[in-house]
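Sample entry (229 residues):
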Amino acid sequence: MLRNLFFLYSNHDKFIWLRPKKYAAANDDNSVRIAYNWYQKAAEAGDLESQKTLAEWYDQGRGKNVVLRNNSMYFYWIEKAAAQNDAEAQYKLSECHRYGTGTTKNAEKAFTLCKLSAEQNYVPAQAALGDYYRLGIATDKDQTQAMHWYGLAAGKGNKSAQKEYDKLLMQGYHEQITVPAMLNIVEGSLQFVDANGNRAIDADETCYLKFKVRNDGKGDGYNCNANVK
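Predicted structure, serialized as tokens:
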């Protein structure tokens, strides 16, 4: 019986939770109520998965008369989870700001959160970020950036992103691919040049090292600088 319950103990301010999977999986009101009470304790103590679980329950409802759908509470817990830099929670919070779920609409916050999530490789966020750039929501329209993010999501199996990527491709847009340059000093090209030709660096004399550089990469090299160490 004890292994089906939820335990908490503190060890140097760190909390360890054994989640009540038996109760959480059940859908009768009594089991849901037990699970909810413990998830709430864990969530309030900062447990990320518990915060996301409560957000999900408030989004969809749980049990018949225990957790009713509540957009404000969904927003409250998903915001707590997003504050812990969780990519899934960041994306869901961005959708709240985009569509006004549990809060007022704020396209700028939605874009910022979606980008944070996409940069952590969360596929739904990458597909959504493609929409922001394609439509110019809270940012300038940029079809190249849209293709970039659609392409990343499509490469991981997102069908809607693949569809939008193909549309842009048919319209003549192309994804900008950055290919690194590879600069190498040409063997045998290094020369020492001094003003009087005595092959010595005399006092108050400026000398030069000359060499040729070849780009062996596939991309162009821009804004090149040389540093001597």
